[in-house]
Amino acid sequence: MPDRDRPSLTLQLSQNKYLAPADGRMDVVLTVRVGEAGAAAPEPPPTAELLLVDCSSSMDWPPTKIEAARHACRAAIGSLRDGVLFGVLECTGRARLVYPAAPPLAVAGERTRQEAKDAVSGLIAGGGTAMSTWLDLARDLFAKTPADIRHAVLLTDGRNQSDRAGALEAALGRCQGEFACDARGIGDDWDPRDLQRIASVLRGTADAVLEDAQLAGDFRRLVERAMGRTVADLRLRVTTMPYSRLRFVKQVFPTEVDLTAQCRGEGGVLELPTGAWGEELREYHLCLGVEAGELTRYEDMLLGTVALFEGAEGPAGPPQAVVGYLTDDLALSSVPDDHVARVTGQAELGRAVRAGWDAFERDDRAEAAREWGTAVRLATELGNEEILKRLGRLVDVRDDGGVVVKERVRPRDGFSLVLGSTISTYSGVDEPAAVAVPAEVDGAPRQCVHCGHKVRPSAKQCGHCGRPVEAGAPS
Description:
Helix content is 28%, strand content 26%. The protein is α+β, with helices and mostly antiparallel strands and 475 residues long. The protein has 3 domains: 133 residues, Immunoglobulin-like (Sandwich), CATH 2.60.40; 181 residues, Rossmann fold, CATH 3.40.50.410; 81 residues, Four Helix Bundle (Hemerythrin (Met), subunit A). The strands form 5 sheets. Strands 4, 5, 6, 7, 8, 9 and 10 form a 7-stranded mixed sheet that branches. The radius of gyration is 24 Å and the shape is globular.
């Protein structure tokens, strides 16, 4: 197809290239955008959608849960465009295809949508919970379709107690790269860690349903977003040098997910499949380990390159260079790139949120308040309104900035906060940020109390770990 009819693909890179001799890493923020296609946009790619509905016995109480699930399925089915392949799975201690009655998946149209709505109206609760069987059946069904875009929505209200040990992890390994999955938990008796693991491996989102009536709108949005995907396979290719190596790569916007284990390749060339895309923007935190002693001082050295690849096509634009410049000047090396600093701040926010929940679960409310107080401060600094809203359901903020844990906390509000701890803010990179260099540096370098890295005397934030430098830190 002509290039003007293809979605636009752009890659931008932000970093502070200056390295001190003691530095062993280079942090980079990658911003990837997929824009809309030209006026003669092609037909959307073949798409398949599956709804995985927990019908275990616990879904029967209160009865609003199973009815909310039925209603959400009907709403999602009603939003399917003509031609989309789809199916509905009844999920208990095993998985069963309830619509269509047998493979292959149905083709969305007026008749099949109505038949599917009738079928889900008959879903009843009874049985256990074995999520590995749900995912394995979804994988088998997707494998029988020609669809390029494969997406599932999974709903559960219980813990994965009917699965044998290790079964869910094994199923995720089989399903990785085969389809995307958004996971939702309803009620107050499920494990957010299961949903977070499913979403991170299967490139989806995980969240809690705070009110049963909200489920239908959420299902509809998830399905519509999946149908809006126009790029089926977008990959990041990272090339390193003999004196550099990949330490990690994480998606950091719109949610945080560690993707290092999903990189494929050998030697100095690695590829990260990022899944299917619609018109959207994502950010990634790339960290390279660097042998600083191998670099020539006072000149730009190539540490690696990053390029975008779509499907079997060649690179979508020129590769972006990751550059290192070895210097003894702390005024250069200790100034963090604004976007990298925001990413590291978001990681610290997530840590504080999860540590607070861990303390709350072991009934240590004082420790929970301390950690969530830190989270409130960091979320405020980062402008992360979503996390502040979720924290507000669990804590009250005092006039002095400290927090008090509310007397009555619903488990689902805690699950929402834990799963929301990966929701990040966009760093807003438009052009590679310039490194601000002070005109002069007065006094001896200081030491970061968090990581021990030397920073310039006036630094407010450590260029190595990104955390605030404490006032009066030792020299």
